[in-house]
Amino acid sequence: MKTPVKLRVNGQAHEIFVEPRKTLADALRDDCGLTGTHLGCEHGVCGACTVLLDGDPVRACLMFAIQCQDMEIRTVEGLADGEELHPMQRAFWEKHGLQCGFCTPGFLMLAVGALERKPDMDEEELKEMLSSNLCRCTGYQNILAAVRAAQAEMQ
Amino acid sequence: MKPPRFEYRAPSDVEEVVGILTEVGDEGKVLAGGQSLVPSMNFRLARPGLLVDINGVKALDYIQRSGDRILIGTLTRHSCLENAAAVPGPLGRLLATAAHHVGHMPIRVRGTFGGSVAHADPAAEWCMVSVLLDAEIIAVGSRGRRTIPAEDFFRTVFTTALEPYELLSEVILPVLPDSARFGFVEFSRRAGDFAIVASSVVIDVGSNGIINPRVALAGVGGTPVRARSAEAVLAGSAPSAELFRAAADAAAGDVEPMGDIHGSSEYRRHLVRVLTRRALERAASEA
User: Fold this and answer.
1) Quick check: A62 and B2 CB within 8 A?
2) Which residues pair with B66 in a beta bridge?
3) Mutating which of A18, A39, A59, A129 best tests the B interface, going by the most B Cβ atoms within 10 A?
4) Which of A91, A98, B1, B268 could form a disulfide with B257 if both were Cys (CB 3.0 to 4.6 A apart)?
């Protein structure tokens, strides 16, 4: 049975009407019209759907929208400030941190969330953090280079 | 895939959780971090009729000391235990090391200690640690509260002594003496995967050799197990490379691993030998 759910995404309120089984990822895409969050595996392995929930990177395919009321949700659509890209987005562009781009929203949110939690992550910690998500194009080296570049700028 | 339909309730206290579980019986399932339950629902391997979301029961989220015991509330996120200072002494370091092996960061900020124990994956870190340290597992039901020793709690793969109307509310671990040393080693194909085999040890070296040795293994059967013969080899002897090899051999003899797509029985037994030796060496060299 559908229930009214209030989501707060990138500072904006969305009043949606969904079944309890609707995942946060599907609610963002289908009901809030925010299709920047991508769904890969739908079982928490690939990380493409990573969003920030009260600042923490989480798999949006493993949460139900109904659980996320009263929480602050951030998605890739909230990163840029108007035409001004977030340092992480710019770094992915400049360092060629993407090819097909499918995994990119997840990587951006993962890296932004992780660095906001711990700005001084060292190389090993960055690698370990980036192992959370799957990318089949880049081989990860340019993603790591992008995150390192953005880290310097974000500090 | 998408999960099948279910009803959703989000109570705010333990009494209410237990009330709902009692009322709905087998149809009910507790939702904590959801990092194992939701994937299995998305695969349609699990089809609970009703989810009881306990994330709003803040009283279940705590790490407390009570005398020589540490009480871990069921809703404690894995990431809270990654901080070795969250729990005093060697136990804090052991838990931090184990926590770091649980999935990946986005899994650790969401997944819970109690959820992992209740899920009872035979390769899960917290299940192995519970058996290693003789944890006491607290189940709360409408008939009250009971304590289940870890070795009786895990029955087989994904199967525990919990009744459908019970909530796993807390896990109690013993504080380890400052002189205790631990080793925790896993082998998996990719970072963040469940271990194919994991081995964990705690030893305390006194003037008369090793006292209170504990060796536990995961990924070798339906539940985590203690390697009792390995412990017997270690007890009362002075630590040495030779002793550790003998104990690791004994550990390999203690298990009858099941073979599957990730590794044959023989391969897992080999891993038990190698990882137990490494875990003992790490314990011996831990500062």
Assistant:
1) no
2) B69
3) A59
4) B268
